[in-house]
Amino acid sequence: MESPGVATTLTQVSALGGETSAIQSPLLVDRIGDISPDRSALLTSIVQKAISELWVLPLPSGTPHRLGGLLGHEGTFSPDGDRILFTKLADLYVARADGTESSKIATLPGFASWPRWSPDGKSIRLSVLDFQTQSSSLWEMQPDGGR
Q: Residue 133 domain-assigned?
């Protein structure tokens, strides 16, 4: 992706190669967090007035829609596609894939980023940046924030 504020064209191509096609979106996508398990949508973050909102961008086309009132970045779908994880500064949240029932599951000791589910959905890993030491660490926990 190019720097925020610069128009970017998203394109898709088959994993087997071939022609590319543009993904039509009226939104300026800040970051693509994940692709849904059924490969039908991208989970993106869109910056609106310096606030990052979570949106779903249907594939290969369709109307993008905001995930409820979710504010955050770097979202990812659960392996079954029913839930999403996302971060907001030092906090880690889980919500239903439609953007409802959002709850904070952990506050980390630094900037939380790139949350990912294990393939079986029983654990979560994410990076945490310590601003004082400028170092990152990898954290693992259960989806309810335990361990």
A: yes
C-alpha dihedral sign at 24, 26, 28, 29: negative
pLDDT digits over 34-88, tens only? 889 998 888 888 777 667 889 888 887 778 888 988 998 889 999 999 999 999 9
How remote is the C-alpha of 135 from its chain's centroid?
22
The DSSP secondary structure of the chain, one letter per residue, reads ---TTS---EEE--TT----EEE--SS-EEEEEEE-TTSSEEEEEEEETTEEEEEEEESSS---EEEEEEE-EEEEE-TTSSEEEEEETTEEEEEETTS-S-EEEEE-SSEEEEEEE-TTSS-EEEEEEETTTTEEEEEEE-TTS--
Q: Which one-letter amino acid corresponds to residue 61? A: S
Report the CATH number that the domain containing residue 87 is assigned in CATH: 2.120.10.30
Q: How many domains, in total, are found in the chain?
A: 1
